[in-house]
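User: quick one, sequence for these tokens?
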């Protein structure tokens, strides 16, 4: 059976495995470039066009742009930082070019999970450099640009509506307000490996999440950095790399927050310079520090939803060796 260019376009745009709205955004950029008879799009120009589409979309229609409640897409985060003045347009464009196309550009032509049937049908990609547009996209944009744009925008709206259903028990506006607070006070990620020797002793030399002796160590943000937007030591722990991977950026169970409070009190019981910084950030008494950390936890729950990770299957808070360590006993255990 022979399929025409429109068949391919509709199959690609209607039957993608969409967990975010990147495909309709890219489809919009492709159609506009093809309407203007461009045969190639330089990476910086594609990044600018993609960013502008999301700026317009989020300004007029601030709906969820991906399926998981409590998460923002990279583009949402970049647009927000641009809007509040934390990024210049050129810096935001560069971030889009670096991080925004990792999935959507290579997978745009996928129909469902099939990556071969329509592979490279509308463009060839030199990743990080340019897209070379082919005759089929130039052809369909020339013939039916307005109707295709209308369909693409409708598809975008349908995805947002579907994502909003997943977010129905989720206060989107309040979550965005909380995110803005953390973004305003946040900063770019810093190298963390230098904290390993310092953190190890105060944690009892065991993995924070499974309680086993430390090896193959990773530094983890207990409350996900995607929300809190900083690397302050009161939220950093050591974990096995595999435990860190399992946890990812999920919200942890309340028992780990209690453990983090106790770990921080181990630091407060010392004379380490970080003691003063934790005191300034969380409070000058154990009760104030506990209350402040619990407020951060509730904020993160509001932003991310209550999708908890309780730890590796073998972890049992009641037998966690951290609580039997002398340093923990000395500091309120």
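Assistant:
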């Amino acid at each position: 059976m022979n399929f025409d260019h429109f068949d391919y376009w509709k199959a690609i745009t209607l039957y993608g495995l969409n967990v975010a709205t990147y495909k309709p955004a890219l489809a919009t950029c492709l159609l506009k470039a093809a309407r203007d008879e461009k045969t190639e799009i330089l990476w910086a120009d594609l990044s600018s066009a993609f960013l502008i589409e999301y700026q317009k979309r989020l300004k007029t229609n601030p709906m969820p742009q991906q399926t998981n409640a409590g998460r923002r897409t990279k583009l949402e985060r970049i647009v927000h930082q641009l809007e509040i003045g934390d990024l210049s347009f050129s810096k935001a464009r560069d971030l889009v070019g670096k991080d925004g196309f990792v999935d959507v550009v290579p997978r745009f032509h996928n129909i469902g999970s099939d990556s071969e049937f329509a592979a490279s049908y509308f463009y060839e990609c030199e990743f990080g450099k340019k897209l070379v547009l082919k005759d089929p996209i130039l052809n369909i944009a020339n013939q039916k640009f307005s109707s295709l744009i209308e369909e693409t925008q409708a598809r975008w709206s349908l995805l947002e509506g579907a994502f909003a259903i997943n977010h129905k028990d989720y206060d989107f506006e309040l979550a965005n307000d909380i995110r803005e607070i953390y973004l305003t006070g946040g900063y770019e990620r810093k190298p963390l490996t230098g904290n390993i020797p310092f953190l190890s002793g105060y944690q009892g030399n065991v993995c924070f999440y499974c309680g086993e002796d430390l090896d193959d160590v990773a530094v983890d943000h207990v409350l996900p950095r995607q929300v809190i937007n900083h690397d302050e030591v009161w939220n950093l722990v050591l974990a096995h790399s595999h435990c860190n991977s399992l946890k990812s950026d999920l919200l942890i169970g309340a028992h780990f927050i209690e453990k983090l409070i106790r770990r921080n009190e181990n630091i407060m019981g010392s004379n380490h310079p970080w003691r003063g910084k934790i005191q300034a950030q969380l409070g000058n008494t154990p009760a104030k520090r506990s209350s402040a950390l619990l407020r951060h936890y509730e904020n993160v729950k509001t932003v991310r939803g209550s999708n908890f990770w309780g730890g590796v299957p073998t972890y049992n808070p009641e037998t966690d060796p951290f609580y039997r360590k002398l340093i923990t006993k000395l500091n309120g255990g």
